[in-house]
Design goal:
The complex is a heterodimer of chains A (220) and B (300).
Chain A (H helix, E strand, L loop, with lengths): L2 E4 L5 E7 L9 E6 L2 E9 L2 E3 L2 E7 L12 E7 L9 E6 L3 H10 L4 E6 L2 H6 L7 E4 L4 H5 L6 E5 L2 H10 L4 E5 L15 E4 L2 E4 H4 L2 E3 L5 H4 L2
Parallel strand pairs in A: 8-9, 8-11, 9-10, 11-12
Antiparallel strand pairs in A: 1-2, 2-6, 3-4, 3-7, 5-6, 12-15, 13-14
Chain B lengths: L4 E3 L2 E3 L3 E3 L21 E3 L16 E4 L2 E4 L8 H8 L8 E6 L4 H11 L5 E5 L14 H14 L4 E4 L6 H10 L4 E4 L3 E4 L14 E5 L4 H14 L4 E5 L5 H10 L3 E4 L1 H5 L3 H16 L3 H4 L10
Parallel strand pairs in B: 3-4, 3-14, 4-7, 7-8, 8-9, 9-10, 10-13, 13-14
Antiparallel strand pairs in B: 1-2, 5-6, 6-12, 11-12
Helix pairs in contact in B: 2-3, 3-4, 5-6, 6-8
Classes of the chains: A alpha/beta (220), B alpha/beta (300).
FE2/S2 (inorganic) cluster (FES) binds next to helix 5 of chain A.
Chain lengths: 220, 300
């Protein structure tokens, strides 16, 4: 059976379910119930260990209302994050979910996690040697002190734009989000503009090399 | 009971056809539902040249539906006929949706795609491109439909806008020699962000699909059937289950298209067809016998 754990002030939910299949960091599942939401919502895998699949979900949206029902969980969808050498991991808010799964699967050099407040820090497990910042300090502010040139980031659109602007010389991979409807590359809903034209987060992503993405078009 | 139906000389093994757009060109969809099970498949709308589509966000979630602002993204007709059309499924009716701006555009696309199609659907009603939908201009609509008619002998479907009077649009289609209308395309709608005061979509409006849309489409199907009993109607909008299909048929539709439901749960289409069969068995009636039944006092 599924288990729900809610953070102190109710802003975040950890959803845990039994799952016998496989999934890789960066991949996501869609969640809905018979009663709703009408369009299944995509969620990145936060963790998959010992047959337990975990998601970190921001509450107060429509999905939350249904999480106590019989969940219809479909996936995994999307491609795995490539294994990146000497990587600096950067996460913002619930964008921490795929970063957490990456960090528990592969080696990494440094991690910087930015969150709006302590509520999320106290709620998720974060490796000892990582740096945590709270608004108004951003992960980008801290990353300027790091010598690492390979970055894997997931967070709000503004954060991804910030990182691209601040580190023009680095190789930056971002796990991107767009509203999805089919999660299978059929509906053309989750578009991002790349140097090779429009690509879809669900089918071609969700991880993109940021130097190939036109963030101005995508996040205008 | 018999689920099959013949429309303009084309045999459908059942009345369930996928709608243009939500399933793209079908490559993913057919991993979940075989073309052996469905009556027909409609391609994404194909235009004379590639279209990039609208800037994101392209979707707005609704409680009982979806707003989309895709903007007719497609690779253009030349790429379509070279790379996609030859592998469209052969075991259901292939409907290719054609789009453009002028009669020449539509004729050009129709000419190039017709050999890959069993039927051609003329998209007069995309809610997401340009200023106003083609269907709002009766002169242009007639010119487009006539141009397509002169280009192909394959049966043509006029896809109508639900934002406009569908009886009026059907009249125009019939005057252009069209015998099948699709009722219809997604309705224009908008949602606004109460935190920023801005619309969610960059083009403000998108196309509404899903169950929220169904009562409107059902009423329009009923109206058109009442006005033009001889016209063949494809009912489209919000179908989630077999009962919804029956509602469209009794309102007057001969074929039923399914879009959003097939997109969010591609496996569910097979169940809809199986359930439809069970409903007809319980009624002891064939599909053909219940088309427009509501106009005749219901089932007898
Ligand atoms: C690949 C991918 C991975 C993802 N992974 C995660 C993840 O790990 N964790 C996670 O939490 N999310 C994730 N998301 C996002 C997730 O899919 C949902 O979109 C998100 O959680 C919000 O969905 P919801 O249904 O809960 O909220 P919605 O109902 O869509 O609402 C979202 C927010 O908008 C507000 N809102 C609603 N209506 C209005 C209005 N009219 N005006 C202003 N505000 C309004 C709500 O109050 C809420 O705060 C991911 C998305 C993608 C594409
Ligand atoms: C994502 C999406 C893309 C669509 N693209 C097209 C299109 O290219 N051409 C077209 O005629 N209709 C298009 N439509 C409209 C559908 O064919 C259909 O008319 C509408 O979605 C209502 O049916 P439904 O509620 O079953 O989805 C699109 C709809 C959606 C949701
Ligand atoms: S969600 Fe449909 S193409 Fe990505």
């Amino acid at each position: 059976m599924e288990m729900l754990k809610v953070s102190k002030k109710g802003s975040y939910i950890l959803l845990e379910l039994p799952y016998s299949g496989k999934a890789m960091p960066g991949q996501f599942f869609t969640i809905k119930t018979q009663a709703g939401p009408y369009i299944p919502r995509p969620f990145s895998v936060y963790d998959l260990k010992d047959g337990n699949l975990k998601f970190l979900i921001k509450s107060k949206g429509e999905t939350e209302k249904f999480l106590n029902g019989d969940l219809i969980v479909d996936g995994p969808f999307g491609n795995a994050i490539p294994k990146i050498d000497d990587v600096l991991l950067m996460a913002g808010g619930v964008g921490y979910a795929p970063i957490h799964f990456y960090a528990s699967t592969y080696d990494f050099e440094e991690m910087i996690v930015g969150m709006p407040d302590d509520e999320l820090f106290d709620f998720v497990d974060i490796p000892d040697h990582c740096i945590c910042v709270v608004d108004p300090t951003t992960p980008t502010d801290v990353a300027k002190l790091s010598p690492l040139e390979n970055i894997l980031a997931c967070g709000p659109n503004e954060m991804i734009k910030d990182i691209k602007g601040a580190f023009p010389e680095s190789t930056i991979y971002a796990v991107m989000e767009e509203k999805m409807a089919c999660a299978r590359g059929m509906c053309e809903g989750c578009a991002v503009m790349t140097k090779d034209g429009v690509k879809f987060v669900c089918k071609d992503g969700p991880t993109f090399n940021v130097s190939e993405v036109d963030l101005e078009w995508t996040y205008r | 009971m018999d689920l099959s139906i013949e429309i303009e000389g084309i045999h459908f093994k059942n009345p369930i056809v996928t709608a243009s757009g939500p399933l793209g060109f079908g490559d993913e969809f057919f991993k979940y539902t075989s073309s052996d099970t469905i009556g027909g498949f409609t391609s994404k709308t194909v235009t004379p040249y590639p279209i990039t589509g609208n800037i994101p966000p392209r979707l707005v979630y609704l409680q009982n539906g979806l707003l989309n602002s895709i903007g007719l993204q497609n690779p253009g007709v030349d790429f379509f006929i070279q790379k996609i059309a030859p592998s469209l499924p052969q075991t259901c009716v292939r409907i290719i949706s054609v789009g453009g701006e002028s009669p020449e555009d539509f004729a050009n696309v129709t000419k190039k795609v017709e050999k890959f199609a069993d039927m051609i659907e003329v998209n007069l009603s995309c809610p997401n491109v340009g200023g106003s939908v083609i269907a709002s201009d009766s002169k242009l609509t007639k010119e487009i439909l006539s141009a397509c008619k002169m280009t192909t002998k394959k049966p043509l479907i006029a896809k109508l806008s639900l934002d406009l009077d569908t009886v009026w649009q059907s009249q125009i289609a019939m005057e252009s020699g069209i015998k099948i209308v699709n009722i219809g395309n997604s309705i224009q709608g908008a949602r606004f962000n109460v935190k920023t005061g801005k619309p969610f979509l960059k083009n403000v409006r998108g196309g509404l699909s899903g169950p929220a849309f169904m009562p409107i489409a059902l009423w329009k199907v009923y109206q058109v059937k009442q006005a033009f009993p001889e016209l063949t109607i494809i009912g489209l909008g919000g179908v989630e289950k077999a009962e919804d299909v029956v509602e469209y048929i009794v309102a007057g539709a001969s074929l039923i298209e399914i879009g959003t439901q097939a997109m969010i749960d591609p496996k569910s289409i097979q169940k809809i067809i199986e359930d439809l069969k069970k409903i007809l068995e319980a009624l002891k009636l064939d599909i053909k016998e219940i088309i427009g039944a509501s106009h005749r006092g219901g089932f007898r």
